[in-house]
Fold:
Amino acid sequence: MILFPGTYVKEFDGWRGVGIIFVVAAHYVPNLFMGSWIFMEMFFVMSGFLITGILMDSKNKKGYYKRFMYRRVLRVFPLYYLSLILLFFIIPNSWIDLSYYRQNQAWFWLYQENWLFSLEGLHPSKALNHFWSLAIEEQFYIVWPLFVLIFSTKSLIRFCIFLFFFSILFRNTGTQLGFLNPPFPYMASLGRMEGIVLGGIIAALVRTDKSILEKIAYPVTIISGILSFSVFCYARTMHMDYSINYQINYTLVDIFFSV
Structure:
């Protein structure tokens, strides 16, 4: 992800396409595509990188926050809210069981459905369970411009490092102590920040000291990739204990995709 700031990265479109295919496939054939969650980590890292870069490049321009949110709203809101209208008010319940989601639709209108699933668990129908990642992204869009605005580049990097370790600590402490049970570690915003903030760190370094990234990119990518694959194989073939993904592998995969 070591790129020149402000450039369009066509390779990202290709990776997005591959990621979407695998994520959609995982929803239909979960046992065959169990590792597709890694592409969700890729999406979070890419969002952190691209959005932080856009914000840093425009933070000194007039109407900084308004312009950014206007573009996000035009890009995301129409299709998202059209989908909610169709799902909650038009599609008959005889076609697909949406009763649970309709009873809790306020969470969806406010982009907070990831917290609904985190607190109450995923609904067996799985019809709208995949909306959780959209909620995390939108929450990020709303608050992140404010942090980019108030922090200098160095302070922003320090803040991202703090959030990185806080996210890991929050998720792992809760999992180990038993008060955060799946899907909470996977869908709660506080436990899923490291991918986004790692992307933010890379975006900041690209604009300040790219030489650091050039030195560490290949060794970090290789090491994190090998470790992540080893952890996944350990969980899959020996113990079938996928909680290790919450504890270790999310972070390793985020590091792999960030550099």
Observations:
- The chain has a mean pLDDT of 81.
- The CA atoms of residues 121 and 182 lie 7 Å apart.
- The two ends are 5 Å apart (CA to CA).
- The chain has one domain: 10-209.
